[in-house]
Amino acid sequence: MTDDQVPTGPGTQTRRALLAGAGAVGAAVLLTACGDDSGDEPATPATGGPAATSGGSGAAAIARTGDIPVGGGQVYAAQGVVITQPTAGQFKGFDPICTHQGCPVSNVDGGTINCTCHNSKFAIADGAVKEGPATKPLAAKELKIDGDQISLA
């Protein structure tokens, strides 16, 4: 007997129907997870509150200057940027994707931007490789500082 010939009724289902139902549930969960939260503003990692918008330009601020520690930084994966402050008042932006095998970088600690997939480390000042296996630096991203607000340029 094939799947199509198996009787159905209370307590019985074909494997095809069962798999189709499971696939539909999986798709619904996936679509819900990827849904549009257009009413919600992104949160900044340091404050957990809504991201502010910079005055007049309309561009959403990713962080406040006070959120970025001197000699450190923050990863803003959802906004596609790592923001660092190598020296007081100097802010730098970098792509948050490791140049080794495309893993997202995970944190900024000890003066480096770190990818925990394979332990590559990048300089907070210029994105240069400090420790491999990566061999290429992180790509720079232009930032706009407006008062205490940081956004992508």
Provide a brief overview of the structure.
This protein has 153 residues and is α+β, with helices and mostly antiparallel strands. It has 1 helix and 11 strands.
Measured as a percent range, the helix fraction is 10-25%
Strand content: 25-35%
> The biggest beta sheet, please?
4 strands, antiparallel
Whole-Å distance between the termini? 64 Å
Q: What Rg, in angstroms, do the CA atoms define? A: 23 Å
SSE pattern, N- to C-terminal: HEEEEEEEEEEE
InterPro entries: Rieske_2Fe-2S, Rieske_2Fe-2S_sf, Rieske_Fe-S_prot_C, TAT_signal
Pfam families: Rieske
Organism: Micromonospora humida
Protein name: Rieske (2Fe-2S) protein
Give the helix/strand layout:
Blueprint: H1 15-33, E1 63-64, E2 72-76, E3 81-87, E4 90-94, E5 107-109, E6 112-115, E7 120-123, E8 129-131, E9 140-141, E10 143-146, E11 149-152
Which structural traits does this protein have?
153 residues, alpha+beta, four-stranded antiparallel beta sheet, 1 helix, 11 strands, 12% helix
What this model shows, in words?
The chain is an alpha+beta fold and about 150 residues long. The protein is about 10% helix and about 30% strand. It has one helix at about 15-35, and strands spanning about 65, 70-75, 80-85, 90-95, 105-110, 110-115, 120-125, 130, 140, 145, 150. About 25% of the residues are buried.
